[in-house]
């Protein structure tokens, strides 16, 4: 079949999300209360999350219905196209078949909208008036700004300083959707003021921005907190990517040998690969490759341990690969991949050797992004460039054994063009991360 794009009808859009938790061999370790080191109670988490999402966080059910109100908004851009990247294949001189799931067609430009709409819906349903959140690249903040506006909620976004400065038009986008944005660390929270006093010139980090957004939610009755990755319910919402892709690959008459995605907190990669996991567990020969930045090598060089999800130690302890909660990664241009931890679900799948993690440097990623733009026409987000770099390796490593490769095109880079400009001007650098720095970063892990 020679079709370039496989497009599903709206009536073929999945009406249930897939929950991978019951299928993870040897299960997930529960989140712990940092005070007691015992599994945290839902009541404690209910201070910052609505019950609808907490139920999903711990659900033993394989499939969960997507509410009609969420489906109605998904229809603005879903189902997303599955595209054969044959121009890229030709440019690489490979017989490998490369397919990408284009999540960049969402209103805010990335997969993040899949979870933002669901999270805004469950908060609205429980009478919440306002959401606070962090954003790294600006993609999650834009997605939540769009979704909160759809449900008539207010939204406050703490945007990591380095991205705030690199991506001014992300602010414009969030303002257009009606959200309030501040650079993090900010003077708006006690924790932000403390960090600013200690490190006035800090680039910020996702861990700091999460602490600020959590403090915001914990100190206001009308506000709850929304996280754009890492947590089980986010990965549940993102499963729609893989569920659609599976149907589309079937229509194309193909099945992937390899599924590739970039890994920040793990949500877009888990979203595309988890619906294929049961096939692997039943003996199908399929590999899952998660690509992370060498400057923030959580899966390839971090420790599997209980750690906090934020710098101020406000979150429960999550069992995950981590570089230490106070790790502040270099200011690379893939802001969405600058996170010290990894989702417990992706971490457990790496622990079980069901995912192959790899790390790549940012210059080779921008090079891959430029090739993709010149061949397939779409300019990828810097995060997505990491996935493309991983795909190029898979497609060219053995030209005598061409594979069928599926990857998640997690977002477009039209609001990241200043990063491309810096790349073309030779102003970007790779960051090596010495062993001593990793030891230093992980020495403050909580004692269990
Ligand atoms: C376009 C894009 N891709 C990937 C990511 C990484 O996040 P996750 O690993 O949760 O998908 C981000 C995060 O901001 C992003 O904006």
TrEMBL record:
Q: Which GO CC annotations does the UniProt entry carry? A: cytoplasm
**Similarity comment: family membership:** Belongs to the TrpB family.
Positions of the Tryptophan synthase beta chain-like PALP domain: 77-411
- State if Chloroplast is listed as a keyword: no
For this chain, one GO molecular function annotation is: tryptophan synthase activity
Please verify whether the record's keywords include Lyase: yes
Enzyme class label: lyase
Under Pfam families, the record lists: PALP (PF00291)
Cofactors (names): pyridoxal 5'-phosphate
Q: Which domain of life is it from?
A: Bacteria
Function (record text): The beta subunit is responsible for the synthesis of L-tryptophan from indole and L-serine.
Q: Which Gene3D superfamilies match?
A: 3.40.50.1100
Going by the UniProt record, its keywords in alphabetical order are: Amino-acid biosynthesis, Aromatic amino acid biosynthesis, Lyase, Pyridoxal phosphate, Tryptophan biosynthesis
Record PTM N6-(pyridoxal phosphate)lysine, positions in chain: 112
Reaction equations catalysed: (1S,2R)-1-C-(indol-3-yl)glycerol 3-phosphate + L-serine = D-glyceraldehyde 3-phosphate + L-tryptophan + H2O
**The protein's name in its UniProt record:** Tryptophan synthase beta chain
